[in-house]
Amino acid sequence: MVYTKTWTEFESAVIDLYNRAPRKARYVVKFEPKTGKLVIKVTDDSKCLMYKTHSAIILNRFETLNHRLLSTIANARRRAPTAPLLNSGSAGVGTPAAEGDDPMSGGGVASPAQAPGTPKPAPAAGGGGKKKKKKGKR
Fold this sequence. Notes:
This protein is 26% helix and 14% strand. It has helices at 7-20, 57-78; strands spanning 26-32, 37-43, 48-53. It is of the alpha+beta class. It has a domain at 7-78: 2-Layer Sandwich (Signal recognition particle alu RNA binding heterodimer, srp9/1). Strands 1-2-3 form a 3-stranded antiparallel beta sheet, covered by helices on one side.
């Protein structure tokens, strides 16, 4: 594994690698706080690209590369098969999902205490609601 010398060369090679094999490409980011070294590794199992730096300026460039890769990944998934299926009004498999039927949000049914469109309250932090023990005087 050889580290790439310049950021522009690394960035163009990463984008080219991802465009050739979007399903196989993956990347890992490591930061070592003791040395302050940032290591970025992108691979598709046949080719491995690595870049390391100690500079904080590269963090902005890395953020733009990360944003670009994530947006292309999201766009590729969004463009997945969207062929319209013809069904006779039954809400079954293959019908377009209704608004709010996101499987990640819990089935799309709003709770009765909340109006649709309002954010859900965050759970209370602190772990259990117990009273704090008082410290003795010293």
